[in-house]
Design goal:
4 helices; Arc Repressor Mutant, subunit A; mainly alpha; 88 residues; SANT_dom
Length: 88
């Protein structure tokens, strides 16, 4: 199954801490800890997460609801400019 529950994600995180990149049969072991996923599914999940990390680190992707610093500063200035002396 392609959807992951929060419990499976937590188990996945724990499994990655236990089985590092040098562990033989790493993905089989991770899948066993996660439950309900194949070795191929957990490897694909890992690969997708690593792609996300690379995008975030390169500045190509921002989480939903996140404002870039310039946009945040601009909106703060606009909000502050609209305050009257009575608001202070």
């Amino acid at each position: 199954s392609s959807s992951w529950t929060s419990k499976q994600n937590k188990s996945f995180e724990r499994a990655l801490a236990v089985y590092d990149k040098d562990t033989p049969d790493r993905w089989k072991n991770v899948a066993a800890m996660v439950g309900g996923k194949t070795a191929e599914e957990v490897k694909r999940h890992y690969d997708l997460l690593m792609e996300d990390v690379k995008s975030i680190e390169s500045g190509q992707w921002l989480p939903l609801g996140y404002k870039a610093p310039a946009a945040a500063n601009s909106s703060n200035r606009a909000r502050n400019a609209s305050l009257t002396d009575d608001d202070h």
